[in-house]
Specification:
The protein has about 80 residues and is mainly beta. The chain has one domain (about 5-65). About 10% of the residues lie in helices and about 50% in strands. The protein has one helix spanning about 50-55, and strands at about 5-15, 25-40, 45, 60-65. Strands 1, 2, 3 and 4 form a four-stranded antiparallel β-sheet that branches. The protein is elongated, with a radius of gyration of 17 Å. The mean pLDDT is about 90.
């Protein structure tokens, strides 16, 4: 089944260290929690955890290769 999952996401930043133990970079681990699904081909629409569970679709999805720039926050002044 292909379609569009909607929901919220959680970002957990992981840190890379160099050989000296200094921070050498960071990358986001992003997990999306689905709250809905829609298929533009067959007009299937699922809303909420109960309908997603009944359909067998996953409630959480790990986003692979997330672009870190998508999750940078602007400093508040």
């Amino acid at each position: 089944m292909q379609g569009l999952i909607s929901g919220s996401y959680d970002v957990d930043w992981q840190v890379d260290y160099d050989r000296d133990g200094s921070i050498s970079g960071a990358y986001p681990v992003v997990t999306m929690t689905a709250s809905g699904f829609s298929c533009g081909f067959c007009d299937l629409n699922l809303d909420g955890a109960a309908e997603l569970k009944a359909s067998g679709l996953p409630r959480t999805v790990d986003i692979e290769d997330a672009d870190p720039e998508d999750f940078y926050e602007e400093p508040g002044y």
